[in-house]
Amino acid sequence: MDQRADDVRHVAIVGGGTAGWMAAAALARAFHRPGGLKVQITLIESEAIGTVGVGEATIPPIRQFVESLGLSEDDFIRSTAATAKLGIAFKDWSGPGSEYFHGFGDYGPVIAGPPWRQYLFRLKAEGRIENLDAWSMPTAMARACKFAPPVDDSRSVLSHYSYAYQFDAGLFARRLRTLAEALGVQRREGRIEGVDRDGENGLVRALRMQDGGEVAADLFIDCSGFRGLLIEQTMQAGYEDWTRWLPCDRAVALPCASTRAPEPLTTARARDAGWQWRIPLQHRVGNGYVYCSDHVDDQTALDDLLGQIESAPLAEPNRLRFVTGRRREAWKGNVVALGLASGFVEPLESTSINLIQTGIGRLLELFPDRTFDPALIREYNRRSAQEFERIRDFIVLHYHLAGREGAMWDRCRRTPPPDTLAAKIDLFRARGEIALLEDESFREDSWTAVFTGSGVWPKRLSPLVEIEPLEAVERQATQFSQLIARAVASLPDHSHHFTGYAR
Ligand SMILES: Cc1cc2nc3c(=O)[nH]c(=O)nc-3n(C[C@H](O)[C@H](O)[C@H](O)COP(=O)(O)OP(=O)(O)OC[C@H]3O[C@@H](n4cnc5c(N)ncnc54)[C@H](O)[C@@H]3O)c2cc1C
User: Fold this and answer.
1) Are strands 331-332 and 335-337 parallel, antiparallel or unpaired?
2) Which of 84, 223, 293, 439 sits at 20 to 30 Å (Cα–Cα) from 351?
3) Whether the model pTM is above 0.70
4) Residue 479 and residue 489: Cα distance in Å, rounded?
5) Does residue 223 contact residue 12 with C-beta atoms inside 8 Å?
6) Which residues form the pocket of ligand 1, taking CB atoms under 6 Å from any ligand atom?
7) For the residues 259-279, what does the mean pLDDT come to?
């Protein structure tokens, strides 16, 4: 393809964390192929500054990202010490001993007519079942520690689930770096000390390096983490703060040695001032406490975490501070922010890496030339804002509905949710319906898992569901749950598929 005068010829990526290397690998893959545009890509990172060092659980679309890079699953699992993730076990959110599971899959068979979860709501209303777990294939698999990739036949119950990965963030960035460099990405080590802008149009012209050099480019991708070196410190895009709905503002992370075979699930255990994660990898377990500094001090939070982890820590505690929210403009001028530089919704549903992935996809779709048409920028920002807000609503749902006692939990229950979420809650309570909006990351059954897991069930049901004879519905439900139980028993152990980490 011929190069045009206005084409972007040089992209500079600021930062070599998960966001930077994901962007580098994906852009190189998109542009560096025979007949593709020739775009030079330079990634600048500073070992002295380092990366945030967390971010190990994902949601299912990560698999498409890995595949789109041309990485085989086997290579990916070995090089990142990955395990499978079939969902999240939420423990103690409605008080000590309570538990629900958000599995990556549908409830009940996928058939024409009302979704099967509606029939299960009816069985619940009639007092015939307690919860939906027995109709969720990923829930049953995760609890039995079984795993096999889903089959490609929608008639089989073995196709009714999806899965994501849990991996070592450092190893993931390392693997992406090898891949990106092999595709021609230039890496530059060093600290950026200043930014030069065009006096006329305000676009970023070049980055000034500590060693006296400079990196000039047409398009800059800001992956510099929470500091937002270009998007905030230079372009002053502004930040929308969502702390009133999601008050957790700190975390402490601490890996420890595995004491048992890794389970294909993440655990999110509610605590007095937040929640604690447990992410089993092949070679270790990731742990962390996400908390609200108004309700617990840093030392108590660390002591709490130390008291909960299953073996001695393998590293010093990694302490993190954040403000949940999003950058008002993720793209401003010739700067596009990805990763933590673009905003952060706390990691309860492991959504940040997914936001990097969708941001990259959107950037490739709307890739500009050097005129930086404002229409492209507006559309990018509109979609990014929506996607962030949908995820925010989903996370707020967990806190707002949690039945747990305590000052922080009361505060989350009392705070009125965003209007978009309030409407969803009303509709679910009224009829068990979930009205998905544009750019939702989570589908109806994910919302259902959190609603019902938090003890919220619909008051009324669709008449289409109520006209079926109850006994027939119950019989079919029993058959389906038995089918799931038999299918799960036939599967191999999780570790059978997810092994092979070479130290
Ligand atoms: C407590 C916590 C838990 C999380 N858990 C999850 C999870 O389970 N799942 C998930 O999807 N996400 C999670 N995340 C988010 C995830 O960690 C991030 O989305 C991901 O790591 C991307 O980070 P980043 O690359 O944007 O930033 P960083 O990792 O902070 O990287 C920033 C880069 O910029 C470079 N840099 C900065 N300033 C300069 C400079 N002046 N000169 C040169 N280089 C510079 C740094 O050296 C570094 O390379 C979590 C986040 C937190 C805080």
Assistant:
1) antiparallel
2) 293
3) yes
4) 15
5) no
6) 15-20, 44-46, 49-52, 54-58, 169, 191-192, 223-225, 227, 229, 251, 253, 288, 290, 320, 322, 339-341, 347, 350-353
7) 97
